[in-house]
Specification:
This protein is mainly α. The chain has helices at about 1-30, 35-55, 60, 65-70, 75-80, 85-105, 105-120, 125-140, 145-160, 170-190, 200-210, 215-245, 250-265, 270-285, 290-295, 305-315, 340-360, 365-370, 380-390, 400-415, 420-430, 440-450, 455-485, and strands at about 320, 330. Strands 1-2 form a two-stranded antiparallel sheet. The radius of gyration is 23 Å and the shape is globular.
């Protein structure tokens, strides 16, 4: 009983200390700020402290502005609540719905297994198959959902491979790399699209709100997909060709496992075909949105509208399959949304609300001007931001990190009169690439629980991948942002 109470008591203690620190900061006002600015900064300190310590669920922390801002006369409840209905939140909502439909009808398993089947069943090729399958799926599904889906498949492959003892083979290395492949490929694949990972959505939501400028789906992919592809290739060579080679050759039993799982799925079903159709149409509309808008004057599409159209279609289109009551349902029914991460949507709203309040009282501008004076070399600044972001993300939630730092880097860019995306995109992408510690991202934590990974091994691979990510992100952003985002 004592063990059960220890965690809640610890959380209450952490919450109390965070609240006391915030109140003390407001009372002392060491920066000699105006009262409103001091109050907002104190609330920011409280929220960031609770996010970092995880004393309260992150979505719960995100609703604090709805309580504290009206109470402390920072803004009215009506003004505060507008941030929780930001259009980008609904973009992610639509993306979530699409991911739910793909998972519900097992389309994700079919895609993953067929990619692994194509790459072959030698040790290195199996790892490559998992990297490609996980990376591709993570572009469209949440990183956590992708990892959870690939995790049991990987455990099955490990179990089969371990039964066939080959001379000179290193099964420990194989087990390690296949698990790390899932986590890192899920993290990396997510940076390729706007909806691939929450930090992308959080930053774009802030950017579009602050600058009233749209970042379209295709432009983001033009910049970020090449980075993701190169990182996935680097991950393969770093793990299986350099740090942890497995020397496992082609094996018939592992190939049979792939074929058996594909056979169990059977031919592609009608619901899968219809979900795939919605998915392809949605992706095509995202990619060619600008072309569609420029070719006619009847309507104007944006990424959020397209995502919501896809979500609506999933609830309208019949699945072609019957449920347990022998009735045909749509591709999605409302009960399916029980699996959706509603808390993430609240988290986005709270983050946008906090960022707007910090900016409104002038704190972000002050910090941005101060930091921008640290160096006049923009390339060096891009590099420094990527370094700081990737290593902070090892110990802090990447979503919370982007929410906190998006206004800071934007203000720095404004003070230096440069494109804010030059600083904002490396901060955002680097936040999703943390790979050294289990707490860096949810995929890292999931695979670390498999007991196939030692901490020193994760740190070793993660550190190398962090360095590669920093270099690639810095170079691509420096040379490509001026061309793509004019």
């Amino acid at each position: 009983m004592k063990g059960n109470l220890s965690s809640p008591i610890k959380n209450v203690l952490v919450i109390s200390i965070a609240a006391l620190c915030a109140v003390a900061f407001w009372y002392i006002n060491p920066l000699s700020l105006a009262n409103n600015a001091s109050t907002v900064l104190s609330i920011a300190i409280l929220m960031v402290s609770l996010w970092v310590t995880d004393a309260l669920p992150m979505p719960v922390v995100a609703i604090l502005p709805l309580i504290l801002f009206p109470l402390l006369k920072i803004s009215t409840l009506e003004e505060t609540s507008k941030s929780y209905a930001n259009p980008v939140i609904f973009l992610f909502f639509g993306g979530f719905m699409l991911g739910l439909a793909i998972e519900k009808w097992d389309l994700h398993k079919r895609i993953a297994l067929n990619i692994i089947k194509k790459t072959g069943t030698g040790g290195d090729k199996i790892v490559l198959g998992f990297i490609l399958a996980t990376g591709l799926l993570s572009m469209w599904l949440s990183n956590t959902a992708t990892t959870m889906m690939m995790y049991p498949i990987a455990l099955s492959v490990i179990a089969v491979i371990s039964q066939n003892k080959q001379e000179g083979a290193n099964y420990g290395h194989f087990n390690l790399t296949i698990m790390l492949a899932i986590a890192y490929a899920a993290n990396i694949g997510g940076i390729a699209t706007i909806i691939g990972t929450p930090p992308n959505v959080a930053y774009i939501g802030y950017f579009q709100s602050k600058y009233n400028t749209d970042i379209d789906f295709m432009s983001w992919m033009l910049l970020c997909t090449p980075i993701a592809i190169l990182l996935l290739i680097a991950l393969y060579f770093v793990m299986v060709k350099w740090l942890y080679p497995n020397h496992i050759k082609y094996d018939l039993s592992s190939q049979n496992l792939m074929y058996d799982q594909i056979k169990t799925l059977g031919p592609i079903t009608i619901p899968e075909q219809r979900v795939l159709f919605v998915f392809i149409v949605t992706a095509v509309m995202w990619i060619f949105r600008s072309l569609i808008n420029n070719s006619q004057q009847l309507f104007k599409l944006d990424d959020t509208i397209i995502a919501l159209m896809a979500a609506l279609a999933l609830f309208v289109i019949p699945s072609g399959a019957k449920n347990s009551s022998d009735k045909e349902t749509a591709l999605l029914v409302w009960s399916d949304t029980n699996k959706m991460a509603w808390g993430i949507l609240l988290l986005f709203g709270g983050g946008i609300c906090l960022a707007e309040a910090l900016e409104k009282v002038g704190l972000i501008q002050i910090l941005g001007h101060w930091l921008s004076g640290s160096t006049a070399n923009v390339l060096l600044l891009v590099f420094m931001i990527a370094v700081i972001s990737i290593f902070i993300s090892e110990v802090m939630s990447n979503v919370a990190q982007v929410i906190v730092f998006a206004p800071v880097v934007s203000s720095m860019a404004d003070a230096m009169h440069i494109n804010p995306l030059l600083l904002g995109i490396p901060m955002t992408l680097a936040a999703s690439c943390a790979g050294m510690l289990p707490m860096g991202t949810p995929p890292n934590a999931i695979v670390f629980a498999s007991n196939h990974i030692k901490m020193i091994e994760m740190i070793k691979v993660g550190f190398v991948m962090n360095l590669i990510a920093i270099v690639l992100i810095t170079l691509f952003v420096w040379y490509s942002v001026p061309l793509i985002f004019k």
